[in-house]
Amino acid sequence: FWSSFAPSLPLFLPPSFGIDTTSFPHLITPSLLLNSFKPAPDVYLKAAAAEKCDPGDCVAVEDSGSGVGSAANAGMGLILGYVGASHIPANKKESHAKMLMAGEKSDDGRGAVLVVEEFTNVATLINVFKVARAKGEGKGGKPGAFVFSEEVIKGLKGRVWLPEGKVLVNN
To answer: What does the pLDDT look like over 47-95, one tens digit per residue?
Structure first.
């Protein structure tokens, strides 16, 4: 679900990401059409409702503190942070990752579970979450309490920021 200015979506998701932006126009809503702005949960609740999903079974990928707050306030099951976009300068990625994990804009202080620099990691993490949820794992717990195995984390590419200030650099 995209909540920014809708015509910009193809600019942010180039063909190299393998996502056909024309296949889900029903999920693209300009944020101006929503009644409130992030960190209010509206955009994520609308996305979950559009897909007939419980928010706890949904994944949010965010690059802003307000977006993380919105996802947490909506009860998203997994919040991933992303700092690989070009608008985040290289010398600010670490502090930005820490901010995404801090959860300062969420009502309960919940932030991103982990933060990645390489967008290709996002699909891997979503698939692991999806498989675990299909098996009934991670349900009934606090939203966002999902934990990735060490094996999954070590298989990711680039820098990965983890709780407690740990940063892994994988090849």
So the answer is: 888 888 889 888 899 999 999 999 999 999 999 999 998 889 999 999 9
143 within 8 A of 153, measured Cβ to Cβ: no
How far is 1 from 51, CA to CA, in rounded Å?
A: 10
Q: What residues contact 72, with CB distance under 8 A and at least 6 apart?
A: 39, 79, 103, 106, 107, 108, 110, 111, 143, 144
Q: What is the pTM of this model?
A: 0.83
Mean pLDDT of 1-23: 48
Complete edge-to-edge strand list for the sheet that includes strand 158-161 = 59-62, 78-82, 114-116, 158-161, 167-170
Of all residues in the chain, the percent with pLDDT exceeding 70 is 75
DSSP H or E stretch at residue 160: strand 158-161
Query: Which stretches within the chain are classed as H helix?
Result: 9-12, 42-50, 65-74, 93-102, 120-134, 150-154
- Return d(Cα 44, Cα 60) in angstroms, integer: 8
Buried b or exposed e, range 123-155, using 16+ CB within 10 angstroms: ebbeebbeebbeeeebeeeebbebebeeeebee
